[in-house]
Amino acid sequence: MAAPKKGRSASAQSRPGRSLALILIAIAALTGGMFATGHPTPRLGIDLAGGTSITLTAKNEPGQPNAINKTNMDTAVDIMNRRVNGLGVSEAEVQTQGSDNIIVNIPKGTNSEQARKQVGTTAKLYFRPVLATEASGGTAKATPSPSASGSTSKDKATSSSSPSATPSASATTQGRPVSDALKAGSSPSASGTPSSSSSPSSSASPSASASVDPATAKLQAQYAALDCSDKAVRATAGSDARPTEPTVACGQSKDSTGQYQKYVLGAAEVSGTDIKKSGAVFDTQTGAGWKVTMEFTSGGSKKFAAVTGKLAQNQPPQNQFAIVLDGQVVSDPRVTESLSGTAEISGSFTQTEAQDLANMLNYGALPLSFKESSVTTVTAALGGEQLHAGLIAGAIGLALVVLYLVIYYRGLSAIAIASLGVSAILTYVLMALLGPAIGFALNLPAVCGAIVAIGITADSFIVFFERIRDEIREGRSLRPAVERAWPRARRTILVSDFVSFLAAAVLFIVTVGKVQGFAFTLGLTTVLDVVVVFLFTKPLMTLLARRKFFAEGHKWSGLDPKRLGAKPPLRRTRRASAPVDTKEA
Q1: Looking only at Cα atoms, what is the longest distance across the chain?
Q2: How many CB atoms lie within 10 A of CB 487?
Q3: Which pLDDT belongs to residue 170?
Q4: Is pLDDT of 153 > 50?
């Protein structure tokens, strides 16, 4: 049983070059990837690079005078954090100030416009039936031309269960007045009969107009006055409407004729809370571009099936439903049959727009609406001074560690310094790669975490070196001492690093903001310590143990048996005492 063990041990000892080659190849590959991404330096946080600070002020919702409270503000901060931070290490800070303000700090290098959209967009999504629609400045229609093309903003919204759901939004002037469309179609879900059964002549009679109730007359007046060519009007029209009431709204972008559509919409039938998950995908079948897919909850699927089934029985445009995001119509597909399960919003999205919309739908709507009170630029002057001081402190600490290693471990310090260098290279390269990959931003606490990691890494070397010295003190030569010391040192190193990583993980989970940067860096460098010790320090020590300088215990090697107080070899003692025992016998 012993022979195979020795054979395997000898084989393992004779191939340390494989481990060294593996880690060197990994370093080369990661470094090449870093330069290939075009980001050869780590992305800096707002305290080191400066950035943009946005102040958002909460607005009371109609009919909800007490909506601005601590619970809703905390919820809004949490949703904004998840929208812009992803893993929580991209260094965008979101925090409350006072009772109705939220401060958002976005570091330089981040797409500030995209981030502003992420935090400022309420993302309230509703599916509303279309009662009337026309190009802004035209006349309302109830029956579009069969050849009409071009939708409001994004070209179509369909259900995966029905490819026949196609866009329809025309500026054709046909049909009856808006008042009749409102009376006939104000509640499409309440009736399965077509909502445009009245003849145009009868519906346009004076008696019909005289019977319009005040709410309908008000909505008709709003619709007539609505000018969607005005950017400010498009941003505010319908944004404060209650989901249970009809409203007017504008299309988010121009149709094929270069005009914005305006709409009269019924009460919301399905809301964003009925969406289970959403995602941005590229339409590979048609090549039409990016689209947002939505999967409904079981309750949402039933609602969607019910409303689309009833809309399918109506005449255009009242067989359309509008997908309304924060008061603006994103899409207005025509429905020809009952749909359920999943739906999609597709058309002229860019990848960023599709991902942003899917992100907002996934994380949910903000409980409050916000307006931008101020947008200011933050300089990095103070952070630069603190970084300079921190780097000086780190350099002093590193110099003291190296000095201690040289004085106490002499030749062995070369192995420790080389291992620290490898660890530093891996840490830098990974930080640079994680910037564009997950949005990691290096801030001052993260720099502190990297400095603390110097001590953790040096501690692993010291544990290994002391185990080797203990074996030499027992009278063993260097090569066996290295192999016998490694299993014991390995257990100690793994336990120590596990405790450090556990502390970093807990700190990352229970904290927010900059402290997460410290925890993330500490956890990353702890994992790298294990990699470096296993794949670099131990193999390098095995190779150098074969060199005469270390194997014979040169006084500057740090492994001099006399200086360590080594015992005489056990085998020599037995050989010397054996003749004496024989003579006495």
Answers
A1: 140
A2: 9
A3: 35
A4: no
**355, 326, 367: which is closest to 121 by C-alpha?**
326
Q: What is the pTM of this model?
A: 0.58
**pLDDT band, residue 75 (cuts 50/70/90):** confident
DSSP string, 308-325: HHHHTTSPTTTTBEEEEE
pLDDT band at 439 (very low <50, low <70, confident <90, very high): confident
Residue with tokens 């990583």: 501
Query: Which amino acid, one-letter code, is at 14?
Result: S
> Which of the 8 DSSP states describes residue 188?
G
Comparing CA positions, the residue from 443, 451, 418, 427 lying closest to residue 538 is: 418
Average pLDDT score, the chain: 76
Instruction: Tell me the CA distances in angstroms from 449 to 252, 443, 495, one per residue in order.
Output: 46, 10, 20
Residues 460, 527: Cα–Cα separation, whole Å: 12
Q: Is residue 344 within a helix (H) or strand (E), and if so which, with residue range?
A: strand 342-349
C-alpha closest to that of 315 among 149, 132, 163? 132
Least confident of 43-47, 347-351, 533-537: 347-351
Token representation of residue 442: 């290096």
Average pLDDT over residues 431-436: 88
DSSP code of residue 534:
I
One-letter amino acid of 396: I
Predicted pLDDT of residue 492? 94
At 197 the pLDDT is 35
Residue 537: left (phi > 0), alpha (psi -120 to 50), or beta? alpha
Q: What string of DSSP letters covers 261-324?
A: EEEEE---SEEGGGEEEEEEEEETTT--EEEEEEEE-HHHHHHHHHHHHHHTTSPTTTTBEEEE
Q: In this predicted model, what pLDDT tens digit does every residue of 93-105 receive, in sequence order?
A: 788 888 888 888 8
CA 382 to chain centre: 28
Burial of 371 (0-12, 13-18, 19+ CB in 10 A): exposed
C-alpha distances in angstroms, 251 versus 236, 321, 335, 359, 503?
12, 13, 18, 21, 51
- Residues making up the chain, counted from first to last: 585
Query: Given the DSSP bridges, would you call strands 247-251 and 328-331 parallel, antiparallel or unpaired?
Result: parallel
Q: Which two three-digit tokens encode residue 536? A: 């670099």
Q: In this structure, what DSSP letter does residue 569 have?
A: P
Spatial neighbors of 504 by CB under 8 A, at least 6 apart, are 519, 520, 522, 523, 526
Dig out the tokens for 414 from the structure: 């070369």
SS3 210: helix
Sheet of 289-296: strands edge to edge?
A: 156-159, 342-349, 289-296, 275-283
Structure tokens at 14: 């004779």
